[in-house]
Structures are given as C-alpha cells and as structure tokens.
Amino acid sequence: MLTPVSLAAPQRVDIALGERSYPILIGAGLLDHPASFEAVPKAASALIVTNTTVGPLYTAALQKALTGRFAAIHVLELPDGEAHKDWTTLNRIFDALLGHGCDRKTVLFALGGGVVGDMTGFAAASYMRGVPFVQVPTTLLAQVDSSVGGKTAINHPLGKNMIGAFYQPQMVLCDLATLKTLPPRELSAGLAEVIKYGPIYDMAFFEWIEANLPALRAQEPAALAHAVRRSCEIKAEVVGQDERENGLRAILNFGHTFGHAIESALGYGEWLHGEAVGCGMVMAAQLSQRLGGVDSAFVQRLTTLIEKAGLPVVAPRFGAERYLELMRIDKKSEGGEIRFVVIDKPGSAVMRPAPDAMVREVLAACGAA
Amino acid sequence: MLTPVSLAAPQRVDIALGERSYPILIGAGLLDHPASFEAVPKAASALIVTNTTVGPLYTAALQKALTGRFAAIHVLELPDGEAHKDWTTLNRIFDALLGHGCDRKTVLFALGGGVVGDMTGFAAASYMRGVPFVQVPTTLLAQVDSSVGGKTAINHPLGKNMIGAFYQPQMVLCDLATLKTLPPRELSAGLAEVIKYGPIYDMAFFEWIEANLPALRAQEPAALAHAVRRSCEIKAEVVGQDERENGLRAILNFGHTFGHAIESALGYGEWLHGEAVGCGMVMAAQLSQRLGGVDSAFVQRLTTLIEKAGLPVVAPRFGAERYLELMRIDKKSEGGEIRFVVIDKPGSAVMRPAPDAMVREVLAACGAA
C-alpha cells in the first residue's frame, strides 16, 4: 500500500482555493535550494520568524537560499513552546517588522513548528492588514497539519486559538530532512495528527499507519514521506471544500475538543498539542461508541495504535465539571452546547452534540473524572 | 444640486462585494427600530461595544431594538479616543467575549465613532477567526468613511493602523439623529472626509459642499443626509472595485500620508483624525500642484473650503526629517519610497512618488518645517 516517494524530486500537493490556491512541496533538503522558492514573490525585504531551538539549526541555510530574492533578510528568534503563543510574543513580530521598516510587499517565513507557524501566519494576516507569508514547517505535526490550510491564531488565557484569522500562505515547504533532528516526543506528537486522518477519512491509510508504525517511529525517510504526503492530500481535499470551517472542515478537529480542554487545564505547553490530541481521540472514540458510530473493537484498535505511537491514552484527572466548563468555550460550541467530532462509521466523521451525562461517562472511563 | 432625502424612510446604499456584500442604511432614528436590524443574523448573544461618551446616549435604545434577536445582549464601554486604539483596549473586547461565553454566532455591534468601529471590527475579524459584526457609526466621520468598506485596525507605537484586517460588516446603520449630539469639533473632523471625495472623485459634489457648508456646519438634517449618502455612494463605488486596496482604493487616502504623520508626531488623539486629514489635504494639494496636476487657484479653493469647515490648514512644526521618517513607514510606502495620493486633475487622483526635495518644499510651505 506504500507508494514509493522519490526523495530526490519534490512531491507537490495543491490546495485549491481559487485565487488563494497554493502548493505544498514535500521533499528532503528543499530549504537548502533557491529553486524551492521560485514561486515566492520577490521583494525588498523578508523576515524569517523562528524559535531558539530550530533557528540555530536551519536559519543560515534558509537565509542563503533566499539571497537573491530579497535585498534584506531579517531574522527574529522567539522563545520555544506553546506557552509563548500569546499576544506578548506576537507583538515582537510586529515590533521587528516596523523596526526594520518592512512594507506591504515584505514576505514572512515561518521556520519551525506549529507555534511559530500559527503566530507568524497571524502576524502576516494582520501586519498592514495582510502581507505574504511562507510556511517552512520543521516538525511532523506542522508538516501534516498545522502549516496547511490557513488557520492562524494565538491563545487567550481563557481559551486556545481564540484570536486569529483564516489566512493562506503563498506556499508550504515540507523539508523532510528537518525531521531527522526531531526529538522522539515531538515525533509522537506529530503522529497523533497523522493517525487522525484514518478514522475520520481513510481507513486504508489507517491500516498503512498500523503496518508502518515501527518504520515511522524509527524515522525511516520513505515512511515519513508517505505519511506527510497522504496527510497533506487529505487535508487539501477537506480544506478545498470548506476553507472557513462552515461544515466539513470541522472533522479535522477530531480529538481536539477533549484535547484543548486538557491543554488548557494543564497549562499550555505541559503536554504537547499532539499528546493532548492523541488522548483526546481516545475520548472522542469512546463517545463515538456510545453514540453508536463504532464498536468497542474499533475503540480498542484506535487506542492501541495511539498508545503504540508513544502517546498518552489516559486523561489527566481534573474532574468532569472542569472539563465540561472548558469544552463549553470551544469554538465549535453554539449557545453553550458542546459539539463534538465523532466517528459515525470507520473512515467518516460528523459533528454531534452529546448529553452531559454521556460525556461524564466518557470522562470517567478515560481517567479524567 | 441637492437631491432631497426623505428623513422618514431610510436610504440604502449597497456595497457590492460578492458574498461579502452588505447594505448601508441611512436615516434618522434608525437605531430605535427593531426593523432596522432585520438583515442581522439571530443568535444566542450579542455584544455592543461602545465608549464612555456615546454609550450613555444610545446604548439603551440599541439594546431595546435588539431584544428579540438575541437572548443575551452584553455591553462593553471602552475609554474614548484615538489614544486607546491599541492592543490593551482591544484585548478588553476579547476578555468580554470569552467572559460571557460568546461563540462563533455572536454578533458584535460597534456603537460609536471611528475608533470604536476600527477596534470592534478587528475584534470581530479575529475572535474565533471571525464572527459577524454591525457598524452603528455615531459620528459624521465614521458615517461617511471609516465604518464603510471593511478596514479595521489598531495602532502600534511606531505607526497608525499598522495591525488590522480587511473584514466586512453585515450592515452599516447610519442614524442621522445621532449627529445632533456631535460636538462642533467632531463635526468639522467629519467634514474633512466629506470634502475629500470632491477633489479625488466628484467635483460636482465638491461644488455642492462649497454651497452648503453653512448648512452642514449648522447641522441641518437634509444637508447632512445628502453629504452622508453621496459620500457612502462614492466610497461604495471605489471599494466595490478594489476591496483590498491593490490599486484604486488608495485614492481614499488623499491627505492621509501627511495626516498620519501629524497624528503620530503629535501623539494620537492630540488632533482628531479628521483634523489631521484636513491639514494633510492642504499639503497633498500643494504637492499635486508641484507635480503639475492642479493649479494654484485649485489649491487655494480647497484650502479655503477646509479652513471654512473649521479645520487646521497649517501643519505642526516638527521639521522635515521627522515628517519624512514617519511617512516612510506609511502602508503605501514600498522599499522605503513614499507614495502619495495626489490630484492629477480636479476630480481625479493617482498614487505617485515625489522627490524628497519637493516634499521638503511642501512641508516648508505648510508650516511643518
């Protein structure tokens, strides 16, 4: 079932959104080559936004590849981690842009994981009411999910990703070579979002992940390449149909309602986003079973895969009330009613409300209450 | 030349932007009537954002008119003035939205002048990546300019309106009755933006303003009604052709490059925005003359009208270097080159760079240097 991916030539997946369409390029060593950036508009200046972990590894190579497209290439290193995905850190991007005299043609580059991508994207959406930006994701999670589709945001003390914009990049450049430096914990977190595409959209891909999990955890290039490409294809199909999440796109949040509550209750950054989503998928599968969409064998199969991926499957115990309170301010809630993404049959997901009593059962079954 | 406007039935001007189209309703007493809001989506909750000056005058009436469309109608009063158009104040809107458990269907109402409208619009653009909002402008300036066309923003210490979004409201409701409580200084500030539409687009309207200036300054309802309607019509025509200011729309910034520099140099709120634009138009007209677009008689005629409208025509003396430095970070600048909106013939405007030496002459001629 594994279609071999040549690591020499980049693969291309297109996000079809009319005048906001753009390509995802997938390959090893892409960020070293000026040719990778041929579709990016030339301008007087560029700003590379990265963090203190990723910056030392890849900034110099990216700067070199961009020389010739921009007269001035500025760099801003932000502190690493979800705890910094806030206004204070975002404002450092605006300070840098204005301090360097950047204008409406300046191109921003997000070099890093999901936090860097979300903040740089929102800064690009808002600076002078919108400047071009390019995603250069360096984590598995960002390559398979957060860098694709134009969701940008920062956190608010009362809720995750509450302040942001739908704003599409000019291009996403997934350089598989950057995954070599990814710590195992970050790799597992990324696998959560890879696994997600199975139960909601493609059970054949789910089976492939089950068969190739050891290769993925061993960071075998061909396995990672296929996981990134298939994930991007599915995300492109979904986002192309529903850019602003009026319907279908919400299925990509499978596991995220429970997961965001975990992140919020623990404090941002305690668990990685992917870890919270992994555990959240177990909880959402339990809820799906109670709503009649899947059987207990399916729940067990998904739970086993998540656990084997190195992700938590038991929720932190904060009590049902705290979880319910946090989930009521989820973006999918309406009029105080929590709406969950649940599996209605393997490979297909829908949004459903659920009785509080049923949610309490799930929370108890998963260790949360 | 004055087309009589009935004050009994609202006038309607449409902004044609495909799926983002919306109406501007113009009339006296509109905010008292539930029927004015029939096009606004119903939802569990609404948030009225206003300021401490306007709130006590109109919040109760608006709340009453909205009862029946929303189960809960929350109110947030912000401090008044351009000095508060910053992140700290914006964040109070997010705090209120999250504190009240507002969701993606919640409708925001901007009840006030340009500052309230710009901040509420940007909050609506960003809260949960976008919620619906309605502009209820209560100043002449907001009714003829800032509430129409979807430009939203906050200021940054290094530049005005540097952080924001293009985000269209569901509706703009210009209640002419609110202009009765407008202080003369605010009325004059609004007249600056009314006058603007003449030299850039419609010299017949310019002549009408010249003939009716006493009636406008005396706040005669029929004169104000015509000024608001014609201004909205022109803005609608321009914005309908160029929503995101890739070209034509920039002409609406006539006088604003000089004006923003004045506001920034003096400190936001020292002069009203309209006052800075009034003086900025005199400067831009001087520049237009030097570039050959208009003659000295035209410059004198425009200057006279601006002065008779109660607006400053002599710029604060900060020296040429300070002005040039501030204008280089204007959003229309590119690669460090300032691009000015100038009149190429009466009733028509274009964007042009200008030699620094010529700009210095203009600054000296207008008292700035």
List keywords for this structure.
homodimer, alpha/beta, Rossmann fold, 2 domains, 7-stranded mixed β-sheet
Topology summary:
The structure is a homodimer of 369-residue chains.
Chain A: E1 11-15, E2 22-27, E3 43-51, H1 55-66, E4 70-78, H2 87-99, E5 107-112, H3 114-126, E6 133-137, H4 140-146, E7 151-156, E8 159-166, E9 171-175, H5 184-201, H6 203-217, H7 221-241, H8 256-266, H9 273-290, H10 296-308, H11 320-328, E10 339-345, E11 348-353, H12 356-365
Parallel strand pairs in A: 2-9, 3-4, 3-5, 5-6, 6-9
Antiparallel strand pairs in A: 1-2, 7-8, 10-11
Which parts of chain A are unreliable, with pLDDT below 50 for 5 consecutive residues or more? 1-7
What strand order characterises the main sheet of chain A?
Answer: 1-2-9-6-5-3-4
Helix content of chain A: 40-55%
Anisotropy-based shape of chain A: globular
Instruction: Report the total helices of chain A.
Output: 12
Average pLDDT across residues of chain A?
95
Can you summarize the main beta sheet of chain A?
7 strands, mixed
Radius of gyration of chain A: 20 Å
Indicate the CATH topology of the largest domain in chain A.
Rossmann fold
Strand content of chain A: 15-25%
Question: What is the domain total for the residues of chain A?
Answer: 2
